[in-house]
């Protein structure tokens, strides 16, 4: 087996069994090939990132990316920033996940960004991911694995444990899979937690907000009924991480002033992502998450008719008891804010249509078509109107 | 022998996943009948019916029935037997768009349509998979009792042809549900 293939095989193994080492491995300086290995790792990461960039899954918002970079810049000294040139990218995905490539590119799902409450929680997340890069966890995991070549596990088996992320392996490469799905070894995750807390505190953020980040992850686990978290698949169990972090916070010197949270500023910057991600959650049938995101958006944009329509859609499509009634209220609010907005008219029409109220259904459908004669589903609407006329006149 | 096995494997793999957003129906015993030209080969696993002329990566016609209680793979939404065709079409589209291996998904048509007298919907969409391969699909679906039936013609974008569409039309027109399942 040539050296390159040997490297790739070992890399795959390391991606799968990132947790196989129980003590920190020696730093790569002791390995004559470390520089070569790290170069290859970075090249491989760059190749996988190219797939990300061309796949249509990147959520592009230059102003928001600038904001994310400004937070990252606060967390590291200048020399580290120069070395890694951290880049923060957003992936269109409602599940809570974030991962770092060894070359300093950090991916956040729109799902996790939407769930955060303030800038301090974002700082905790970024500091954690940046630590994976600065402490060269990918390379150290690889180096540690060289001494344990008997441990060959099936990559698919490992990934299959995590239903919500299984697609990623098929779509993306192994470096992404390690970071996004398997996570890093437990001691690396603990290190990233502790160093991350230190970094955010030094930047002036309230480090106790990191615990809220864990709480969001715990809620996600419960709502998704996952035993192993995606983001932290091989991480220490969540409760243990929370306890470790609490202990670390107690040992830290209390700051003289209250740490920064920047809730309003943060929410103001991410409001578009909130709306977009709630729509993704709705498509994925994650109704509770969709409702949470849409309602959070509504607290920021109380006059946005599209947000009222979105909440109405979530309720109508969920279809639990009283949901239709509540959905109608939200559609009515959307219409009150923008009478020329056709979609809520159509949605109300669908509810009346299914209730057999042909007169009100007809009126609503006619309104929607009058407002938007070329709406994409006009053929369906015309069919409903014919049905309303037929049923309404008893034919 | 090695080469033959490899071809068989590739063919099976392409049937199973490539170019086919959404997974085959889990219905154990298809309860429908249809007709198709002799030059098309039948590939059946007992869970769905697939026919192809040049191999599934080039083109296929897939006919499935799935129980309304059967969960989807990528969306948690469910089909409800009281759904309007437009609503059922919406769930199918959400299932595909929630599949992260389906890239650059675009809906070209979403219309009410009937399959041999059964009222349903008709979708036309394109998408890419990893590697940049582009596919186009014409998808008919309808609800009948506790079952969602779907019939689709899928082809590599450069193999999507009027000739195949004519074959698909014949399949649609010959499609019948056996009496025991139609209630």
If you had to describe this structure to a student in words, what would you say it looks like?
The complex is a heterodimer of chains A (395) and B (183). Chain A has helices at 3-16, 34-54, 62-75, 78-84, 110-115, 119-134, 137-145, 155-160, 166-171, 174-182, 186-202, 209-224, 238-251, 263-283, 287-300, 305-318, 323-337, 342-355, 358-371, 378-392, and strands spanning 58-59, 87-91, 98-100, 105-109. Chain A is mainly alpha-helical and 395 residues long. Chain A has a 4-stranded mixed β-sheet with strand order 1-2-4-3. In chain A, helix 6 (119-134) packs across helix 11, helix 12 packs antiparallel against helix 13 and helix 17 (323-337) runs antiparallel to helix 18 (342-355). Chain A starts with a helix and ends with a helix. Mean pLDDT of chain A is 81; it is low at 1-30 and 146-166. By secondary structure, chain B is of the alpha+beta class. In chain B, the strands form 2 sheets. A 7-stranded antiparallel β-sheet of chain B has the order 2-3-4-8-7-6-5, with helices on both faces. Chain B has a two-stranded antiparallel sheet with strand order 1-9. In chain B, a hairpin with a 6-residue loop joins strand 3 (49-52) and strand 4 (59-67). Chain B is globular and about 40 Å long. Residues 1-29 of chain B have low confidence and may be disordered. At the A-B interface, helix 9, helix 14, helix 18 and helix 20 of A face helix 2 and strand 5 of B.
């Amino acid at each position: 087996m040539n050296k390159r293939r040997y490297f790739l095989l070992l890399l795959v193994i390391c991606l799968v069994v990132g947790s196989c080492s129980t003590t920190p491995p020696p730093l790569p300086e002791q390995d004559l090939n470390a520089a070569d290995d790290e170069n290859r790792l970075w090249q491989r990461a760059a190749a996988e990132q190219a797939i990300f960039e061309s796949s249509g899954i990147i959520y592009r918002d230059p102003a928001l990316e600038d904001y994310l970079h400004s937070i990252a810049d606060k967390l590291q000294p200048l020399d580290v920033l120069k070395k890694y040139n951290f880049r923060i990218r957003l992936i269109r995905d409602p599940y809570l996940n974030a991962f770092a490539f060894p070359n300093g590119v950090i991916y956040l799902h729109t799902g996790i960004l939407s769930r955060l409450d303030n800038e301090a929680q974002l700082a905790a997340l970024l500091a954690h991911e940046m630590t994976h890069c600065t402490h060269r966890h990918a390379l150290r995991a690889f180096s540690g694995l060289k001494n344990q070549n008997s441990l060959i596990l099936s990559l698919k088996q490992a990934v299959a444990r995590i239903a919500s992320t299984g697609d990623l392996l098929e779509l993306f490469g192994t470096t992404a899979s390690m970071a996004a799905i398997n996570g890093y070894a437990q001691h690396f995750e603990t290190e990233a937690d502790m160093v991350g807390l230190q970094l955010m505190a030094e930047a002036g953020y309230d480090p106790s907000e990191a615990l809220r980040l864990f709480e969001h992850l715990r809620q996600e686990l419960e709502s998704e009924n996952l035993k192993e978290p995606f983001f932290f698949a091989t991480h220490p169990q969540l409760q243990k991480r929370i306890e470790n972090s609490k202990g670390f916070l107690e040992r830290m010197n209390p700051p003289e002033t209250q740490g920064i949270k920047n809730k309003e500023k943060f929410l103001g910057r991410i409001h578009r992502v909130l709306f977009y991600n709630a729509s993704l959650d709705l498509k994925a049938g994650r109704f509770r998450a969709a409702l949470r995101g849409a309602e959070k958006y509504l607290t920021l944009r109380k006059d946005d008719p599209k947000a009222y329509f979105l909440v109405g859609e979530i309720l109508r499509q969920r279809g639990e008891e009283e949901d239709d009634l509540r959905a109608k209220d939200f559609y009515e609010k959307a219409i009150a804010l923008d009478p020329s907005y056709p979609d809520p008219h159509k949605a109300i029409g669908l509810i009346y249509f299914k209730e057999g109220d042909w007169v009100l259904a007809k009126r609503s459908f006619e309104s929607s078509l009058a407002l938007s004669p070329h709406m994409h589903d006009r053929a369906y609407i015309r069919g409903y109107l014919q049905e309303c006329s037929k049923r309404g006149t008893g034919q | 022998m090695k080469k033959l096995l490899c071809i068989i494997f590739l063919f099976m793999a392409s049937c199973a996943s490539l170019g086919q957003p959404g997974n085959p129906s889990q219905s154990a015993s298809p309860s429908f009948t249809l007709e198709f030209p002799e030059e098309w080969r039948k590939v059946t696993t007992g869970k769905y019916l697939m026919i192809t002329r040049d191999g599934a990566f080039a083109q296929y016609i897939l006919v499935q029935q799935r129980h309304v209680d059967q969960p989807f793979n990528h969306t948690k939404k469910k089909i409800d037997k009281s759904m309007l065709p437009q609503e059922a079409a919406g769930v199918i589209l959400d299932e595909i768009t929630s599949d992260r291996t389906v890239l650059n998904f675009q809906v070209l048509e979403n219309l009410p349509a009937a399959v041999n007298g059964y009222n349903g919907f008709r979708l036309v969409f394109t998408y890419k998979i990893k590697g940049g391969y582009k596919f186009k699909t014409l998808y008919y679906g309808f609800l009948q009792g506790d079952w969602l039936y779907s019939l689709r013609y899928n082809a590599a974008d450069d193999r999507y042809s009027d000739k195949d569409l004519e074959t698909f039309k014949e399949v649609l027109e010959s499609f019948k549900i056996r009496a025991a399942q139609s209630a």
